[in-house]
Amino acid sequence: MTAEEIYNRLLEWAYKWNKDFSKNKSRAIGALNIGRNIDKVRKDLVNWKQACQFMNMYFDETYSIEDKFPTSVSVEDRKLFLKKYLENINFHENKDIWFDKVKNITEQMGYATNMKDYKRHPDSYKGSIVDLTNVLRIVITGRTNAPDIWEVSNVLGERCVFERIKNCLI
Predict the structure, then answer these.
(1) Are residues 12 and 40 in the same domain?
(2) Mean pLDDT over each residue of the chain, to the nearest integer
(3) Can you give the pTM of this predicted structure?
(4) What's the per-residue H, E or C state across 50-71?
């Protein structure tokens, strides 16, 4: 099924069983398209109820931070990372440039950008890039287990992402 077909069927189901489901069609279709253009298509959504719960992160009225931030990142480092992220990210750049900027911030803060280096010399770093990207993932989606941050960010849009980050800096 196409993302639009899934959305229409999901909306049909939600009309009966989840009246709070957002009617923001363009954002929902963007969310449903994440992971559909790669060799391994996402297969983790099994039923309509689960799909509605999964999609909560995409809509302001249902978004919430559900998971805890990694304990390996101090509150000070979390705020510094998010601040630097806001200062450096440009929504008009491609994924490679975006990730290079995330790696640069990670390195500046004393975290390993390469997991092999981190595993070989864990005492040389505060943590790894995974720790910081999990902070970002939780702020943007509310969860540690979520689709690609860059793709989700592009579906949500600059205003939404920046607002969620700013709310975590308060």
Answers:
(1) yes
(2) 90
(3) 0.87
(4) HHHHHHHHHCCCCCCCCCCCCC
